[in-house]
Amino acid sequence: MTSEAPTRAYRRLSVEERRSQLLGAALSLFAHRAPEEVSLDDVAEAAGVSRPLVYRYFPGGKQQLYEAALRSAAEELQKCFDEPRDGPLLPRLSRALDRYLAFVDQHDAGFSALLQGGSVAETSRTTAIVDGVRRAAAEHILGHLGAEEPGARLRMTVRMWITAVEAASLIWLDEDKQPPVGELRDWLVEQFVACLVATAGRDAQTAAVVRDALALESAEGPAGALVRGVLPVVGGAGHLL
Amino acid sequence: MTSEAPTRAYRRLSVEERRSQLLGAALSLFAHRAPEEVSLDDVAEAAGVSRPLVYRYFPGGKQQLYEAALRSAAEELQKCFDEPRDGPLLPRLSRALDRYLAFVDQHDAGFSALLQGGSVAETSRTTAIVDGVRRAAAEHILGHLGAEEPGARLRMTVRMWITAVEAASLIWLDEDKQPPVGELRDWLVEQFVACLVATAGRDAQTAAVVRDALALESAEGPAGALVRGVLPVVGGAGHLL
Q1: Best residue in A89, A124, A191 to probe B by mutation, most B CBs within 10 Å?
Q2: Contact call for B195 and A194, based on CB within 8 A
């Protein structure tokens, strides 16, 4: 009887359960290795099933499995930016970045392989999935900024910052996850404020957004720390006025 | 006699001249179309030669020609950042950005296809060429900042800004080259200052670099315009001190 148990367990999964079990196994492999370094045998072994069974669920083989895993990771990533629109803006952004950076930490090698390009598994479809995450992140942030019909300047600033965050994440992974994640998060929030403030200098809509956001921040929060850090640096620049 | 003239001209080119003629033809085709949309016949026709002749010079076919064209474009792009280290920093950066944005303008579709990824012509080699340009740009800028042995914070800030400039270039191409190029350039310079100032709030080396740079700027230059634009926006944030 005991020798039959694994077989019974093997058979008891529904199609949907089996599919998501295979996807979970694939996702954890693709998370820590470049797609080139993952074989269908690896996925079968990690899921404790046979290679033909993997093919039955994913007849397109590794590329189909990779794209399905990527789509599932993209959904998870998009959830990072789900944050209630209550309270001051910067703590909201900090919480979203905490979740995003935890995702980067957990999917390190897969995240790098995906964003650094040049992977054999990269196609116009995988690129579209990644672009979808970027677009969703931009819409979330613009929503939090509370700008109705955000103009070209504000949109461009947010999209530039998102790209800069991606670059910072890749560098962070490359530099053995230094600085500590909390420090990186605070710094990225400060970069966000800086980019918005610079744009506000030449765009009325962004200026209104920044004024409204700063009014709700406190001296004890991230905005206070930024202002106190920056003042001594620019304090000597009176000749520019 | 007149009918023989093209044949004589055809033969007179040296190997090196012919190679660079083919490369020039390829480059101008790849500049305005995605690699998928350029055939070897197109290159042969643009260069006024036969398809077998193109193959004689580039036996690896279109992929080899694409990579050679990319390498030649990368060299051109790297020259954009060559700028004497005289006078205030921001006008130097403005001149480099003028050349960079002129390159983006001239190679619009090719530039987008290359950086947006998912192209069938994208390989680890093409990715390495693009990364080489990014690294060279970062070294140029760090050199202009005059920091000896730039630390992790300063390097990361410069690399984040370079990625943000790439993102802005792609958005600019996507939005029919709006805003006008001079406005985009000034804005990117201001974003550079803002990112550095934010980092200066938590990094002593960056703070020293920013102080030295601002001391040489004038009220009439880009730094003056930025300060005057930003002050009214942050002027009401005294509660953060």
Answers
A1: A191
A2: yes
What is the CATH number assigned to the segment(s) A80-227?
1.10.357.10
Residues A8-68: name the CATH superfamily: Homeodomain-like (1.10.10.60)
**Nearest residue to B191 via CA among A192, A231, A211, A240:** A192
Closest CA to B154 of B107, B93, B200, B86: B200
* 8 Å CB contact between B173 and B108: yes
Intervals of CATH 1.10.357.10 along chain B = 1-70, 80-230
Interface mutation target, options A188, A202, A209, chain B, most CBs of B under 10 Å: A202
The yes-or-no verdict on residue B102 having pLDDT over 80 is yes
Reported confidence tier of residue B5, pLDDT bands at 50, 70, 90? very low
Write the pLDDT tens digit of every residue in B135-162. Answer: 999 999 999 999 889 999 999 999 999 9
pLDDT at B117: 66
pLDDT tens-place string over residues A165-179: 999 999 999 999 999
Chain B closest CA to A227's CA: distance in Å? Answer: 7
User: Which chain A residues are Cβ-neighbours of B231 within 8 angstroms?
Assistant: 241
Q: Give the integer Cα–Cα distance in Å for B143 and B157.
A: 14
Interface touch A229/B201, C-beta < 8 Å: yes
What's the topology of domain B80-230? Tetracycline Repressor; domain 2 (1.10.357)
